[in-house]
Design a protein that fits this description.
The complex is a heterotrimer of chains A (199), B (388) and C (305). Chain A has seven helices and six strands; from the N terminus they run E-H-E-H-E-E-H-E-E-H-H-H-H. Chain A is an alpha/beta fold. In chain A, strands 2-3-1-4-5-6 form a six-stranded mixed β-sheet. In chain A, 49% of the residues are buried. Chain B is an alpha/beta fold. In chain B, helix 3 runs parallel beside helix 4. Chain C has 305 residues and is of the alpha/beta class. The longest helix of chain C is centred in the first third of the chain and has 14 residues. The radius of gyration of chain C is 20 Å and the shape is globular. The chains are: A alpha/beta (199), B alpha/beta (388), C alpha/beta (305). Chains B and C meet through helix 2, helix 3 and helix 4 of B and strand 2, helix 3, helix 5 and helix 11 of C.
Chain lengths: 199, 388, 305
């Protein structure tokens, strides 16, 4: 099985669905991998509990994803709200090498019980960083996308930048690319720490 | 996505299912869309409100579903390729007109984005293949319809073109059975070049012979002839469009029995051309899964795992769900020990058909699900149990 | 024409327009299927006459016929017209689809009071709201004739019908006021007792760009007249009425109960109760028409890069 299962959950309006669309666009259009994306719909997408799932097949030979929903355990989790954090159990995430990453936002989640038992958990205060550095929480998406690009490892930097160009208005492109770099940096430092921890 | 042309440039796109369906319709030559917003089909009318106007067509938001289907009939009568999209409650409102259109052999395509439950409140964005029971005999009167069930966004694009071709050829209501989940799924799809699409599309044309306007039985050939659909505003239109049994000119004076025979047999005798099916690892099977639509995708996953365990299981997929391909199914289930029918409903509309065809000689195991997709494990569990 | 009722002697009537009717021209069948005293014969004749005199191109004026007694007008209307039978009440929606798919056409709709204000009220309102270019005739006989004399939304107060055996006590709908509120741009009401006015209105409607609503008051002797007294409409005068069981009385009653719009301005509500106001209520030829406006939007969309 070469499926790569991604789940993003949070509040409506945090950019959960946009981020998932960025991931599927980058992996299918620019990396030529088979992918599907599903999302919460209607009222929950505008407020309340919002989620999106992306499944990417890392095998280039495979043209179509059979089962469209992300299967547990996940390869990559992005958790942006306390409500969704409470639903996460440590066994929901893979324990293998180079996979099973969790990104969570301490600026919106006060208490994340399961996080202590998840090995590869990276906390980025996305909302605070976005507002302080760029003036608007919408830039949080690019930060997370940067971190995702580095940690997941199947999206090249060029594809990621092309994707951002596709999704953001050209007036804010520079700021978004900065945010993307910020996310990348966070992830790279995290990977370094992980490596040191193992050594 | 902005484009002045009917056909998107060749290439790969990430599209929502409903949007892929709308693009497929545009590629098939759609020029009139009449609709009324209903979750989960709204993206179709939203997308076409923009795209259909760019190609000079009309996308009307009508006052209700009755209005939208009747406007579609009106547009089809003047020679436009027309369609509508709706969901369960809207479909129920439309069946009166569907019956009339089937009797008058007015071609149109209806995309049914099926959703859970009979009502209009609650979690209406969950998938539920509950409309097949209505669609297969949609309305009062007797006639046959064609229903196609895509399972991914690429097929939503391709089968929509096919659906329009069926409507033009066989002059009957053609349904696309999408559902809430498929409609909102985002997937990469490949749009072929314009030249290739054009070769696939059957256009609305005037025939050579103006005397025959409705289907009739030709005793010399021993078959049923389906002339091109008549068009208002040309010489090729019948004197009357009677809702009662009529002959090929549209005038009364044909027996009601023969009229019903023509309406039904014109589809049934062409079942080989209409019925699209797909086989997966069916060469040496003990157990066969018969499925359509989204559940097939979970089946592929389950079958791959089961095959590794040495269980001889395969999938017979119905792309054309209705009319039901009796002969093909008979052939497939000939030497199998058990038949598994996973369906996104409790009744098992297709399971009933399989029961009818197999005459209950082979055990049939239904896997009903409502509102949630089949997990591959659900199917795998049944496969393992049956193989013991 | 087998299956279309009994065939009467085929003598050609001495009438200049009957030879152009569908039944007469194509089948040599000059009879109609209506009851004695029905007003639809007059309407069918007027339609054929205007169609012939104005040399109307039938392919540009498709005829959409709803469900009611007037569906049988198919044998009386001009033989070249392209006729489509819509479902009960859905004719305005079918016309919308036709007009939008081919804006060159101008559909003519035959509709009845039950068809248009009962089951198809919504479609009628929205067609008027859009100001779609078409002509809609509403034949108002204040009863459901084809199903056997049930009360219609237009049945007058105090009238008897098979579903109101004691008396009709519901308020009736005024189709003209409905069309005025919905936004049609040519609205007129007349009766079959004023055939020349009806012809005038029809000619005007054919030239008008926009929704033309023509309500025609027509008698139904069999199911309305036979059951009701001709005092309907003048109850307050304490007149003891007579049963309207023949055309003469019924047409008399219609004439007596029709008030010209200029006259109606000076009458009280009580005096106008159960009466029909006839005349032209609105004529606004300069209002934007839907398919033309739509074409402008299409042009913008097509030119957008």
């Amino acid at each position: 099985m070469t499926r790569y299962e991604v789940r993003i959950s949070g509040f409506g309006g945090q950019g959960v669905i946009t981020l998932s669309k960025m991931i599927i666009t980058a992996s299918s259009l620019y990396e030529n991998l088979a992918a599907t994306q599903t999302e919460a719909y209607s009222a929950s997408a505008r407020g309340g509990r919002c989620w999106a799932e992306v499944v990417v097949d890392l095998d280039k030979e495979i043209k179509i994803i059979n089962y469209p929903k992300a299967l547990k355990p996940y390869d990559f989790l992005i958790i942006l709200s306390e409500e969704s954090a409470n639903l996460i159990k440590p066994e929901d995430i893979k324990k293998d090498e180079n996979t099973g990453y969790l990104i969570w936002d301490p600026s919106t989640i006060k208490k994340f019980r399961a996080v202590r038992r998840i090995e590869k958990a990276l906390s980025i205060p996305v909302q605070i960083l976005a507002v302080e550095n760029f003036g608007n929480i919408v830039f949080g998406n690019s930060i997370l996308f940067g971190a995702f690009t580095i940690l997941s490892g199947f999206i090249s930097e060029e594809s990621a930048i092309e994707t951002i160009k596709n999704f953001v208005p050209s007036s804010t492109l520079d700021k978004n690319l900065e945010a993307f770099e910020l996310g990348k940096k966070e992830a790279q430092e995290f990977l370094k720490q992980l490596k040191e921890g193992k050594d | 996505m902005k484009n002045n042309k009917r056909y998107l440039p060749e290439g790969k796109y990430v599209m929502m299912g409903n949007v892929a369906m709308a693009e497929g319709a545009l590629a098939a030559g759609l020029s009139f869309f009449g609709g009324y917003p209903i979750t989960p089909s709204t993206e179709v009318i939203e997308h076409l409100s923009k795209r259909l106007l760019e190609v000079g067509g009309s996308c009307m938001q009508m006052e209700d579903e009755l209005g939208s289907i009747n406007a579609v009939i009106g547009a089809s009568l003047v020679g436009a390729k027309a369609m509508t999209a709706t969901s369960g409650p809207g479909l129920s409102l439309m069946v009166e007109t569907i019956s009339m259109a089937a009797n008058l052999e007015i071609p149109f395509v209806l995309c049914d984005v099926q959703r859970i439950g009979p009502g209009s409140h609650g979690p209406v964005t969950a998938p539920h293949h509950n409309d097949l029971g209505l669609i297969r005999f949609a309305g009062h009167g007797e006639f046959q319809v064609i229903a196609l069930a895509p399972m991914n966004c690429q097929e939503l694009f391709d089968l929509t073109i096919e659906a329009f071709n069926f409507a033009e050829t066989y002059r009957c209501p053609v349904f696309i059975l999408s559902d809430a989940y498929l409609g909102h799924l985002h997937e990469p799809i490949y749009i072929p070049p314009k030249e290739e699409i054009i070769t696939r599309v059957i256009n609305r044309e005037l025939p050579q012979d103006y005397t025959k306007k409705f289907s009739y039985k030709d005793d010399n050939i021993g078959g049923y002839i389906i002339p091109k659909p008549p068009i208002i505003g040309t010489d090729y239109f019948p004197l009357m469009t009677l809702h009662l049994p009529h002959n090929y000119e549209g005038l009364p004076g044909v027996s009601a029995l023969l009229f019903m025979e023509i309406l039904i047999e014109k589809i049934k005798t062409n079942i080989d051309k209409i019925s699209i099916t797909d086989e997966y690892k069916l060469d040496d099977v003990d157990i066969v899964i018969i499925a359509y639509g989204l559940p097939v995708r979970a089946c592929y996953h389950a079958v791959d795992i089961a095959r590794k365990e040495g269980i001889k299981v395969g999938i017979f997929r119905l792309v054309t769900v209705w009319p039901f391909p009796d002969e093909k199914v008979k052939k497939v289930v000939k030497n199998v020990r058990a038949i598994i029918v996973p369906e996104l409903n409790y009744t098992g509309f297709i399971a009933e058909q399989v029961e009818r065809v197999t005459k209950l000689e082979t055990p049939i195991i239904k896997i009903p699900k409502v509102g949630v997709l089949h997990h591959p494990d659900d199917i795998l569990k049944v496969i393992r149990e049956v193989s013991k | 024409m087998s299956g279309m009722g009994p065939i009467y002697p085929k003598e050609k009537p001495d009438h200049p327009y009957v030879q152009f009717s569908t039944g007469g021209y194509l089948f040599g069948n000059y009879n109609s299927l209506f009851c004695a005293g029905c007003g639809y014969g007059i309407i069918g004749h007027i339609f054929t006459r205007v169609f012939e005199d104005e040399k109307i191109e039938p392919k540009l004026f498709p005829l959409i016929i709803g469900i009611g007694c007037y569906t049988q007008l198919v044998t009386l209307v001009h033989h070249t017209s392209q006729k489509f039978f819509a479902l009960h009440g859905r004719a305005p929606a079918v016309a919308t689809g036709m007009k939008m798919a081919n804006p060159k056409l101008k559909p003519i709709i035959f509709s009845g009071d039950g068809d248009c204000f009962g089951i198809g009220g919504n479609h009628f309102i929205h067609m008027c709201r859009r100001n779609l270019d078409c002509v809609i005739f509403i034949f108002n006989n204040s009863i459901y004739g084809m199903t056997g004399g049930q009360a219609a939304p237009t049945t007058l107060y105090g009238a008897e019908s098979t579903t109101t055996p004691y008396k009709m006590f519901e308020n009736r709908i005024d189709g003209v006021n409905l069309a005025l509120a919905a936004g049609a741009t040519y609205i007129a009401r007349t009766t079959v007792a004023h055939p020349r006015t009806l012809m005038k209105y029809f000619r005007k409607a054919l030239k008008h760009k926009g929704t033309s609503v023509i309500e025609v008051i027509t008698p139904c002797v069999t199911y309305f007249g036979r059951k009701n007294l001709d005092r309907l409409g003048v109850e307050y005068l304490d007149i003891i009425g007579e049963k309207m069981d023949n055309t003469g009385r019924m047409l008399d009653w219609i004439k007596r109960n029709s008030v010209r719009i200029n006259q109606a301005k000076f009458m009280t509500d009580e005096e106008l109760f159960n009466n029909y106001i006839i005349g032209e209520f609105r004529y606004e030829p300069d209002k934007p028409e839907y398919s033309e406006e739509y074409a402008k939007i299409q042009k913008i969309a097509m030119e957008e890069k």
